[in-house]
């Protein structure tokens, strides 16, 4: 049976399928945001259909945690975009 875990040093601590780097939020985005059927996502990620449904169930059972993960991702993307637009510091 698939298990969702959090480990600080994998995916920045986001919930993921145990033994993988497949994040719960990533599965949700593919199925709901991307409109892919769960069976196609399972095939694409080389996961079982049960694992995909476990990730989706976790997403829906932990809405506050998922909102926080999404907020943290958005902040990280904004920070990286901001850094990418700044010229590098001159070497001394």
UniProtKB/TrEMBL annotation:
Compositionally biased intervals (Basic and acidic residues): 70-82
InterPro entries registered for this protein in UniProt: DUF433, Homeodomain-like_sf, WH-like_DNA-bd_sf
Organism superkingdom: Archaea
Signal peptide: none
Stored Pfam families: DUF433
Disordered: annotated segments: 70-92
Official protein name in the record: DUF433 domain-containing protein
Top-level taxonomy: Archaea, Methanobacteriati, Methanobacteriota, Stenosarchaea group, Halobacteria
């Amino acid at each position: 049976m698939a298990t969702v875990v959090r480990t600080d040093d994998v995916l920045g601590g986001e919930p993921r399928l145990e033994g993988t780097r497949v994040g719960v939020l990533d599965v949700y985005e593919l199925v709901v945001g991307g409109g892919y059927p769960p069976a196609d996502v399972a095939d694409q990620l080389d996961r079982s259909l049960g694992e995909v449904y476990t990730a989706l169930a976790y997403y829906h059972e932990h809405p506050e945690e998922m909102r926080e993960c999404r907020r943290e991702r958005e902040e990280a993307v904004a920070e990286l975009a901001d850094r990418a637009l700044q010229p590098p510091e001159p070497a001394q």
